[in-house]
Amino acid sequence: MRARKLLFTDNSACYQLKKTQNSLMYFANPHSSYTAFKRIVHMLMFSICIGLIITLFLLFHHYQGQWLSAQTSQPGKALAKQYASLVAVPLQNSDQQTLVSMVSTFIDDPYVESVDVYNDKGVHLAPLAQHDSVITLLKENELAPTIYLENVASSEGGVVGYLRVVLDSEKLLVEPMAMRAQQEQLVIVLALLCFILGVYATRVFYKTRTFLVERDQS
After folding, report:
1. What is the pLDDT, as a whole number, of residue 16?
2. DSSP labels, 81-138
3. Looking at residue 70, what is its pLDDT?
4. What are the beta bridge partners of residue 159?
5. pLDDT surpasses 80 at 59
6. For 34, left (φ over 0), alpha (ψ -120 to 50), or beta?
7. pTM attached to this predicted model
């Protein structure tokens, strides 16, 4: 009987000890669920930030390609139309000597790599030495040259030939790329300034918060 009483007392003591330990663990970490939820939220926000960074990187390259295309296409289209209107009369009159002279003048432009004139049947007329094909130009140049094909129209509006203008993309992009580099430097400086202001704003917030908490407690 006494042994059973001692066993019951030991079991009660173990139960009370476990209950006390559980209570202490609960009070030692009362916000365990909140902490887990907060970690999940932080992980989610971190994943969203990584996704946004990747998206911005892809959009930057996409818009940069469009910007480069716009910078090279705008002057090239106007130049090709101007050259086509100039060679229309000698091409219509089959004046090859004038065509060769005019093409030589066109090539003197530092941005123009080559100019070729064809009749309405695709026969090369000027210059006398035919320039490289488009495939050869793409293989030889690190940056693909800008190529334009323009119809040469007669005074009646009919097509009497074709004009191919090849522009040096590297020379066309020298000034735009220099301006783009300056813009990128300004963006970097602005980002650093925002980061520094954010750090100091955070410090001011926490110092103000500590001061307000201490004042409320007092």
Report:
1. 55
2. HHHHHHSHHHHHTT-HHHHHHHHHHHHTSTTEEEEEEEETT--EEESSSPPPPHHHHH
3. 73
4. 153
5. yes
6. alpha
7. 0.56
